[in-house]
């Protein structure tokens, strides 16, 4: 287990139990006590937990909202996609994040980057999001400037959509937008289950210099109700190594770049 995976595991343990001890981490993560203490200190510096004597307790607002997201399917693949997406982000960027479990994994990856989270008088990153869980996770990080679109909350995805969201998005631009989807097909493009979400996600993608779909390989070739857009809107897709050679070629033929951890 690498450091990023350990930090995420610690946050998961805190989300479930509310507190952890160094001894818990030594047993559960198979690390030394010194490593456990360093990991807790690193998370405390990012305001993701509160250090106590011999362990830590969770921050009051960092876990309650996103808890259903951490129990999602394909968690390992989403974590890998999150790390890949994070590697495409540079200090000073303005990025867009739609709602969804995969974009939440991007937040986890960004939050473990020391170059973005170290104290600095200026914001190291600006995040535009229409997802209230993502805004809540980032609100405790003073190094990140968070812009929330406003709008009506979609209760199953925590996303904001409607005229208010569209009004804000129409007034801003982003370097890169990462858009989570329910399904993606080389021919039909990216899709979600709700037409309001689709409209907000499409506008966010359109306002970015580079727009990328983030989707685990289980979503490739599937269909959903509402179209977000295809190669005319998106520059590419970030997915996991489960994508087949045939699927990769189909996206290439459609004009979309495929980005995987080993590409």
Automatic annotation (TrEMBL):
Matching Pfam families: DeoRC, HTH_DeoR
Domain HTH deoR-type: 3-58
Domain of life the protein comes from: Bacteria
Record GO terms (molecular function): DNA binding; DNA-binding transcription factor activity
Keywords: DNA-binding, Transcription, Transcription regulation
The keyword Oxidoreductase appears for this protein: no
InterPro entries assigned: Carb_Metab_HTH_regulators, DeoR-like_C, DeoR_HTH, NagB/RpiA_transferase-like, Tscrpt_reg_HTH_DeoR_CS, WH-like_DNA-bd_sf, WH_DNA-bd_sf
Keyword match DNA-binding: yes
Name under which the protein is recorded: DeoR family transcriptional regulator of aga operon
């Amino acid at each position: 287990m690498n450091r990023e995976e350990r930090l995420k595991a610690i946050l998961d343990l805190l989300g479930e139990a509310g507190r952890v001890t160094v001894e818990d981490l030594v047993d559960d993560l198979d690390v030394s006590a010194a490593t456990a203490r360093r990991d807790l200190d690193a998370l405390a510096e990012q305001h993701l937990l509160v250090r106590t004597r011999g362990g830590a307790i969770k921050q009051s607002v960092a876990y309650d909202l996103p808890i259903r997201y951490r129990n999602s399917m394909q968690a390992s693949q989403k974590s890998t996609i999150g790390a890949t997406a994070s590697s495409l982000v540079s200090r000073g960027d303005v990025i867009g994040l739609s709602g969804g479990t995969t974009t939440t994994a991007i937040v986890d990856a960004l939050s473990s980057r020391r170059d973005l989270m170290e104290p600095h008088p200026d914001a190291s990153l600006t995040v535009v999001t229409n997802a209230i869980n993502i805004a809540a996770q980032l609100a405790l990080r003073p190094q990140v400037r968070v812009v929330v679109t406003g709008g009506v909350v979609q209760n199953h995805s925590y996303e904001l959509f409607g005229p208010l969201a569209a009004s804000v998005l129409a007034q801003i631009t982003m370097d890169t937008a990462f858009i989570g989807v329910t399904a993606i097909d080389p021919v039909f493009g990216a899709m979600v289950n709700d037409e309001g979400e689709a409209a907000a996600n499409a506008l966010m993608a359109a306002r970015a210099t580079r727009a990328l779909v983030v989707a685990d390989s289980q979503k490739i070739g599937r269909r959903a109700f509402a179209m977000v857009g295809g190669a005319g809107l998106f520059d590419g897709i970030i997915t996991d190594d489960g994508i087949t050679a045939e699927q990769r070629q189909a996206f290439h033929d459609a004009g979309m770049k495929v980005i995987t951890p080993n590409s």
